[in-house]
Structures are given as structure tokens and as C-alpha cells.
Amino acid sequence: MTATGTYSPRPGAAPLGRMIAAQAVLEARMLLRNGEQLLLTVVIPTLLLVLFSSVDIVDTGEGRAVDFLTPGVLALAVMSTAFTGQAIATGFERRYGVLKRLAASPLPRWGLMTAKTLSVLVTEVLQIALLTAIAFALGWSPQGDPLTVLLLLLLGTAAFSGLGLLMAGTLKAEATLAAANLVFLLLLVGGGVVVPLDKFPESAQAVLGLLPISALSGGLRDVLQHGAGVPWGDLGILAAWAAAGLAAAGRLFRWE
């Protein structure tokens, strides 16, 4: 018999760390079960890597195509998950009132954003592992410092996450869907992913070089293809985008 005033199981919120972990697992599962998100995060980067590495479509300059393409495709994978996928998913969660209800739960709003970021990182680990295995099968020979690569990927994730959350928290869901996919296509073409920036007019190269996808793909290419040291310029561009995007998202994000 239970004594008066005691309850089993004990009522109340779970520890914060456990709540964030549970939400992150849920977010990752929903992301990986979504067919459209899988198309963006897995299928398109994989097809681009295999197709452009096997067929001489774009002049990538000196060296083998796979050595040029793999860093760009890794950058594309980060953008597809942290920006496009997260913006679309969060935009529709906001429209359907999911975020409003989650905001009323014991999980604080910053905890929800942390869980979303963790789910993005989990998805990116799976993406990068798959793309790296495919690249090795195609004969990829990476160089450079893995820690520098990790830093570029983390800053790229922060930059694209801030921009994705900013878009999802300020635009309507339908507008977010259209804008996120349009930006994905534009940055795929003009961000140095599969087409070298030096193929564009000189007047456009300076502007395109300031884009986060260009900084991420360029920095990864310098390290992985050419064995360069720390690309401080690209890291600075990514850090600036991350700071601006996350600050704007934190200030302007609307939960309803």
C-alpha cells in the first residue's frame, strides 16, 4: 500500500539532459524517415559525387575529379541537412502548432533548439560516413589535418543552422519550402560545389566567395585536396555567418 502523499512513478519533469537527448533522438528519427529529406541529404549528394566523378562533365582543373568533388559534396551535405532540411521541417512544425505545444512543455525553448542541432549533427555524421566511403571506393586520396576539417564542418553547421532557423521562424511554411529549395539549387550551382569559382566572371567571384557554402567547400578543398594549413579566411567567413544567423534567429524567431 502506498503511503498518503507519495506517488509512483514520481511526477515531475525528467532531468534536462535526458529531455534534450530524448528530443534529439526523436528529431533525428523524424528527419531520417522523411523521404524528401533523405532525397536532399543522402540521394542528391551521392548522385552528384558518383556522376561527376565518373563522367567528365565539368572541368575541375588539375588532378582527379573525385579529389575536387568530394570536399564540395561534403559541404553540400552539411548545407542540405543544417539549412534546407531543418528550415523546411521547422517551418511546418511551426505552422501546425508543434513548436507552440513543445514550448509549453518542461523542455525549455533553448533546449529544443539544442536538440534540433544535435539531430542535425547526428544526421551529418551518417552522411559524411556514407559519402566518405563512396569517395574512397572511387579512389579519393584525402590530405590535411582532420581536426581542421572537423572545425570547418562544425562552423559550417552553425552557419547554416542559424540561417535555416531564421528562415523557418520568420516566413510562412510554404514560403520556407520554396525559398529553402531555391537557395539550395542556387548555392549548389554558384557555391563552388561542383563548378569551380574561377569558371565564373571575375566580378562575381568576389561576391560568391563570401557565401557560406563557398567558404566551406573552398576551405575543405584547400585542406583535403591540397593539404593546406588552417584556412583562416574561410573560417572567418563561416564564423561571421554563424554569429549573424544565430543572433538573428534568436531575436526574430516566432514560435507561432
Descriptive key words:
single chain; about 260 residues; mainly alpha; 10 helices; about 0% strand; elongated
Total tally of structural domains: 1
Query: Helix- and strand-based class?
Result: mainly alpha
Gap from first CA to last CA: 46 Å
Q: Name the helix and strand elements from N-terminus to C-terminus, one letter apiece.
A: HHHHHHHHHH
Q: Number of helix segments?
A: 10
Overall helicity: over 70%
Number of strands: 0
Q: Could you tell me the strand content as a percent range?
A: under 5%
Low-confidence stretches: none
Radius of gyration: 20 Å
Largest sheet: none
Please state the average pLDDT score.
88
What is the approximate shape?
elongated
Task: Explain this structure.
By secondary structure, this protein is mainly α. The chain has one domain. The protein has ten helices and no strands. Helix 2 packs parallel to helix 5. The protein is elongated and about 80 Å long. It starts with 15 loop residues before the first helix and ends with a helix.
Provide the fold topology.
Blueprint: H1 16-33, H2 35-54, H3 65-95, H4 98-103, H5 109-137, H6 146-170, H7 173-190, H8 202-208, H9 212-224, H10 232-252
Helix pairs in contact: 1-5, 2-3, 2-5, 3-5, 3-6, 3-7, 3-9, 6-9, 6-10, 9-10
